[in-house]
Amino acid sequence: MEQRQSILRFLAEPGHVNFGGKVHGGAVMKWVDQAGYTCAAAWTGSYCVTVYVGGIHFIHPIQVGNVVELRAEVIRTGTTSLHIMIDIYAGDPKEAERRRCGHCVAVFVALSDDGRPRPVPRWVPVTEHDRALEGSAERLMELRKAMEDEMQRSLHLRPDLTPETPART
Ligand SMILES: CC(C)(COP(=O)(O)OP(=O)(O)OC[C@H]1O[C@@H](n2cnc3c(N)ncnc32)[C@H](O)[C@@H]1OP(=O)(O)O)[C@@H](O)C(=O)NCCC(=O)NCCS
């Protein structure tokens, strides 16, 4: 199948509202994950799981009653993982204009029936723009490694919170 782009489009409903009267950030994060999954599944033809969602940026609030559009596309493939860029647009359904309200990059891993990572079809950048997107995904990977190292360091500043510590109830 190997479809590179996916779009989800729907109305923001009253059930999505936060205490400030706009769409809840948690609802947007769920939609981002769903849009990323749809794109990852379409590219790989497999069940996929989210392993990372990074750099999510809420640029403008989304109003209840807006039409929301999530545009997702593959920007890098690894061996068993793929990077998906997701842009969130919203606007009044009575008007043509859609404003970009958010953005992020998520990483999914394709799983075989036994739940183990399986190879994904390779995506080869064609245009200059594609190559720039792939380069950006690769730089983000490097930045992520630095962030993870820093997270590990910060855990050691809290000896009561090492990964081995069982969660308190
Ligand atoms: C997905 C999962 C099975 C992978 O297992 P694993 O032992 O980490 O497998 P690997 O180390 O071989 O990593 C698999 C791929 O994921 C990538 N990956 C793993 N963790 C990552 C992270 N935090 N950020 C980016 N990529 C990551 C690896 O780089 C590798 O990519 P590649 O094959 O393209 O080189 C396991 O991490 C898992 O079950 N995670 C939980 C997923 C989940 O519950 N998601 C939420 C609900 S969908």
Describe this structure in words.
- This protein has 169 residues and is of the alpha+beta class.
- It has a single domain (5-123), classed as Thiol Ester Dehydrase, Chain A (Roll).
- Helix content is 29%, strand content 32%.
- It has helices spanning 25-44, 128-156; strands at residues 5-11, 47-58, 67-77, 81-91, 99-111.
- Strands 1-3-4-5-2 form a five-stranded antiparallel sheet.
- Strand 4 (81-91) and strand 5 (99-111) form a beta hairpin.
- The relative contact order is 0.17.
- Coenzyme A (COA) is lined by residues 49-52, 78-81, 107, 109, 117.
- The site of coenzyme A (COA) has 11 residues, from strand 2 and strand 5.
Q: Which structural class is indicated by helix and strand composition?
A: alpha+beta
> What's the tally of helices?
2
Kindly, what is the distance between the CA atoms of the first and last residues, rounded to a whole number of angstroms?
Answer: 46 Å
Shape: globular
